[in-house]
């Protein structure tokens, strides 16, 4: 059966839903409040990471393998692969459990990691300072998704396949039971199915959601490494230096991108339409977090900074729920990009009746397993990368 589908939001989740529903033969129309790609959206930047370590979260760790295979479907459709494998380096500080929990969870899935003590870390990754690091582990899997290029390619692909885009159009109201949207000019648009993937603006369309999701303004900075270190950084893995109180993640400058540093902690503050420029002091604070970790830190330069808004849910559990004749996709808490195509494919299965709404919601929240038939490599102990 073919449905008329309206999608609100053209970030990675909305575009992935549009892509998967188009693949299933539906008539899809996408509404986006800004031009495409939306420079204020959560999905638009040079890069996003995909990696297996997820602490003790078995559901999300397993989901990464399916995410890789969903990306392969997308690469085939758009006829290009906008991804650079880098490997993943996870640092563990004394008294911090996230790295050990991640390794234990990976072990439950038959995936081994290469443990390094502080001396081995220093020898293997000489760009880093191992002070304060108790141990670390390395995985060959993990890499960089070229986010802004992916968004552009998806829009071009879908547009060429008959998906309709309405850009710089504000949606004023949604009526979930009727799969209806009302535009700012008063025009009413009805569909058979409505998908709401409005990112940090979602509570303006569904005010009751403000009790469940919170916009979070995040600052990222871009560094200029010393000229004699650039080649080493291009070949470096992503670095996760994470604990509950401090730390950062680092994205290597692959394929012409810049070296990026971000703070993994949520601010849980901010308005996605305001304060979009990062202040000098807050950018400097992120930069200084690297001081104890980057060798010859004084030779690095802070090039620029920007902000990104996440939509954070309690315990970072994704929200994919049916509301009448509509579907809500939100609360991805900074993790949505890596899972975008997989979320779209899963939603399309639910729209077609091949999955129940409850199964989809429980899976998205990390509580249940859905078998997409993708995971032969994972079952054999070989993670897709």
Automatic annotation (TrEMBL):
UniProt xrefs under InterPro entries: FAD-dep_OxRdtase, FAD/NAD-bd_sf, MTOX
Residue ranges of domain FAD dependent oxidoreductase in the record: 4-349
Entry keyword Metal-binding: no
Keywords: FAD, Flavoprotein, Oxidoreductase
Cofactor(s) listed: FAD
A GO molecular-function descriptor: flavin adenine dinucleotide binding
One Pfam family here: DAO
Domain of life: Bacteria
PANTHER family documented for this protein: PEROXISOMAL SARCOSINE OXIDASE
Protein name per its UniProtKB record: FAD dependent oxidoreductase domain-containing protein
Origin species: Nostoc minutum NIES-26
